[in-house]
Design goal:
heterodimer; A: Glutaredoxin; 9 helices; 11% strand; B: mainly alpha; de novo design (two linked rop proteins); 5 helices
């Protein structure tokens, strides 16, 4: 009698374990499929349903053709590693599409995690006052690992000197209200577009998923040139 | 052995989902939906995100899968060797997580929310194991 009970109990236990193992397998498959679905890329496709109208001001930092059909706006933070990664890609891209694309650079310093991001934006703006915005941007990005760890004010002054800027003017501009406000205006425009990470790219007002390589970027631009 | 299997297994599944998300994102070059407060992109594109071309997240997914499998086996057999195996793997995972969080904090200077989440899950799992171990010892002592 007790042996029979034991056998039944053993059988029930085996069945229970079989159910657990099968459930485990099913859950793993469902989880994997769900995550797989979540990460399907929408490369180059708009991620927002609504198209934001991005008006480009006369005083913005641009490269390329002002009358181009394609307007590529980047919101960037000089202290962000990914932004530094994209910088040479965008430069190369704009060499190729100089006549067909207008590239607009906007500041979006993430001050909560990047201590020197705003200072870097101001340094680039101050250099821009003397016609060296892009040259300063190059130096800031190229030396990002160095100044990110500290001594950024000293480093930026060094770059200004290297670029042959009028140092008094650079220092005055760096701390001027006007430049503070310019950076803030740029940041606020990004906030209105609900940007949550940098760099963020918009083509003709539509946010795109960041292409990871120059080739991918080229493909996205070509798609837009062919009429999206 | 008691209720810990359930919660431990559930956390293991959460860790598995998290690391699998990072793995797929890595291979699909998907921009991660990171909030304004962290820098996922930087962490996931850094040289520390791979070992010999294999994303760390994939090791993470395999690690969680081992833990959950071990938990079910431990529940099924009640054997000490399964508990010891899980304990060893979880402890190793905890130490690796500590190192990775340190690398994000001190070297990359950016945090990835999914990576920090995984470190938190691993830590909680280890705490659960320590409690299970203590309870088990007490049961043995009391008889």
């Amino acid at each position: 009698m007790s042996k029979r009970k034991e056998r039944i109990a053993e059988k029930q236990k085996q069945q229970k374990m079989r159910t657990i193992w099968i459930s485990f397998g099913v859950i793993i498959v469902i989880v994997a499929a769900g995550v797989w679905w979540l990460t399907i890329p929408e490369d180059g496709e708009p991620v927002t349903e609504t198209t934001a109208e991005i008006r480009i001001g006369d005083d913005e930092w641009t490269l390329g053709n002002a009358d181009a059909d394609i307007v590529l706006v980047e919101y960037a933070d000089f202290q962000c590693g990914a932004c530094a990664y994209y910088h040479p890609i965008l430069k190369e891209l704009m060499e190729e599409y100089d006549d067909r694309v207008l590239y607009v650079f906007r500041h979006f310093p993430l001050t909560s995690i990047h201590q020197y991001a705003t200072l870097a934006a101001r340094a680039a703006e101050a250099a821009g006052r003397q016609g060296k915005f892009w040259e300063m941007a190059d130096l800031i990005y190229e030396n990002q690992p160095r100044w990110s760890r500290g001594n950024a004010p000293f480093e930026f002054t060094g770059y200004a000197r290297e670029l042959g800027l009028d140092m008094n003017r650079f220092q005055n501009d760096l701390n001027s209200d006007e430049i503070f406000q310019r950076v803030e205006r740029s940041y606020n425009s990004g906030m209105r577009l609900n940007i949550t990470s940098v760099p963020s790219f918009f083509i003709n007002g539509e946010k795109i998923m960041n292409p990871r390589t120059l080739d991918e970027f080229r493909a996205v631009i070509n798609r837009w040139l062919e009429g999206n | 052995m008691g209720k810990w299997h359930f919660w431990y297994g559930l956390l293991g599944l959460a860790g598995f989902s998290d690391t699998l998300y990072l793995t797929f994102s890595h291979y699909r070059q998907h921009t991660l939906g990171c909030s304004i407060l962290d820098g996922c992109d930087e962490v996931l594109t850094s040289e520390y995100s791979e070992i010999a071309g294999i994303p760390l997240a994939l090791f993470g997914a395999a690690y969680y899968l081992m833990l959950v499998t071990g938990t079910i086996a431990s529940y099924q057999t009640g054997a000490k060797r399964w508990f010891s195996a899980i304990f060893l793997i979880n402890s190793t995972g905890f130490i690796v997580s500590l190192v990775l969080v340190y690398v994000q904090w001190a070297v990359i200077l950016a945090f990835c929310q999914y990576c920090v989440l995984s470190a938190a899950i691993t830590s909680v799992m280890l705490v659960i194991l320590l409690f299970a171990l203590r309870n088990n010892r007490q049961e043995q002592l009391t008889g």
